[in-house]
Amino acid sequence: MTYRNEIDAVASVLSKNPTWNAINPAHAARMRVQNRFNNGLDIAKYTAKIMREDMAAYDKDTSKYTQSLGCWHGFIGQQKMISIKKHFKTTKRSYLYLSGWMVAALRSEFGPLPDQSMHEKTSVPALIEELYTFLRQADAWELNHLFRQLEEAHAAGDQVKARSIEQQIDNHETHVVPIIADIDAGFGNAEATYLLSKKMIEAGACCIQIENQVSDEKQCGHQDGKVTVPHADFLAKINAVRLAFLELGVDDGVIVARTDSLGAGLTKQIAVTNEPGDLGDQYNSFIDGEEISSAADINNGDVVIKQNGKLIKPKRLASGLFQFKAGSGEDRVVMDCIASLQNGADLLWIETEKPHVGQIAGMVNRIKEVVPDAKLVYNNSPSFNWTLNFRQQVFDAMQAEGKDVSTYERADLMNVKYDDTELGKTADEWTANFQRDAAREAGIFHHLITLPTYHTAALSTDNLAKGYFGDEGMLAYVKGVQREELRQGIATVKHQDMAGSNIGDDHKEFFAGEAALKAGGKDNTMNQFG
Questions:
Q1: pTM surpassing 0.85?
Q2: pLDDT digits (tens, 9 = 90+) for 256-291
Q3: Mapping DSSP to helix (H, G, I), strand (E, B) and coil, where does residue 331 land?
Q4: Could you please report the per-residue DSSP string of 36-80?
Q5: Are 81 and 94 in contact (CB under 8 A)?
Q6: Which of 4, 236, 435, 481 is found 20 to 30 A from 408 (Cα to Cα)?
Q7: Distance (Å, rounded) from C-alpha 15 to C-alpha 363?
């Protein structure tokens, strides 16, 4: 619907209510245009459609992969999307990621916590709502500038310019994009997962990512001690998320099934199995143990299972957990992924210990033998030492090709002395191409970095504090921040405007006309920035 159509629609309503004659239909229409989404469900339905279209586009052309950065505050998400629109003129194929790690570390009322599902579950939907509040405000902010330009064009009698601006308003591309939201292991049983999923969807989430760890033993994907659950438990939670989507009318909501089996060597329980070869039997086939030949081999408290026709006494730790066979991780990953895709999941997440296209592709190709359109969401994790990993991969490739690598020490490849070498430069090229290569060769539809803004906030704060409290003093801020904001066109240099001051001024005029007391007059110091 165009801005002019909205004016006509509001004018029709006002004509039936004569006591509302103080309302200018253009003002009400403008407020409607600046607030495209009325609630989180509107957003979830809109973004689910976008994500489904992106998935279909990727199936036809793997160069059309999608990306996101993890954002721990609405302002961070807002500035990310404003930056993307500024530099690339579109928000297409750019998402937000909501990281459970960052919610735990930065948004819990308990203070900083490890990524072990100890934070309040309500903090997850609260952050989704916050992110979309800031993205909607970015729409209002950007459109507000266009509407002010439109008023100036009308005041100057420049109808050509006015029509051009109206066209920009009518074709405005929203900052609201899909969020892939981390529900950890579901925060409890399947009913708890369903209830939290509803809150997340109502807040705006079109895509929920859930992992196959035990909820009360959950660990960060890059920590030790991970414990997985049998498939029946995990699939019940996938069903819970799907039913939450369907109940709320988000019929094309997206579920990402994450497997931590590559790094998880433990299970809390033995799966229920009804016949040889079913999912429970397959899960149990990976449990490590020793073959027994008689009841005399069974001690008090031992558990015995039948595995490949033999009686096996599983290895049980003092914690009561059972141990998987060493080296079985990749096989378990493939089994997990096929089971998830065949039972309601839309996308996969394989948590790996390093960024290696060949390793990821090896697993994905096995999955695609059963589910040809299998696609991944992949964590370009800050937990990887990217420089060392890729330098070692290049070292190994050079060595395999018979090249002389005697000038390099593989264990010391992080050393700055290798930065400008052939190996160092090649490794940087491989890193730069990782997303493109992995999208093409390893089925990765979506690349994300879970907690980049955690690191950027720390790094930029360190640089500012070092200078401001040192010899640079105020120059540290002026040269390192404000001057760069001005020269790079960063909107936050006018922080009053970014926070909504001009929107508020315009609303005051809508409400009170000439009697409005505005903040943006000649004495506003933001005018120093042009």
A1: yes
A2: 999 999 988 999 899 999 999 999 999 999 999 999
A3: helix
A4: --SSHHHHHHHHHHHHHHHHHHHHH-TT--EEEEE-SSHHHHHHH
A5: yes
A6: 435
A7: 65
Q: How many CB atoms lie within 10 A of CB 40?
A: 22
Q: Which two tokens stand for residue 366?
A: 């096995």
- C-alpha 289/C-alpha 304 separation (Å) is 9
- Residue the block writes with tokens 């199995």: 273
Sole residue written with tokens 């948590």: 351
**Helix or strand or coil: residue 227?**
strand
HSE-CB of 117 using CA atoms within 13 angstroms? 19
For residue 529, what pLDDT band results from cuts at 50, 70 and 90? Answer: low
User: Among 72, 80, 67, 75, which residue's Cα sits nearest to residue 101?
Assistant: 72
Contact of 267 with 322, CB cutoff 8 Å: yes
Q: Which residues are catalytic?
A: 220
Burial category of 16 from C-beta neighbours within 10 Å (exposed 0-12, middle 13-18, buried 19 and up) = exposed
φ, ψ of residue 491 to 5 degrees: the values are -65, -25
Q: What is the pLDDT of residue 39?
A: 97
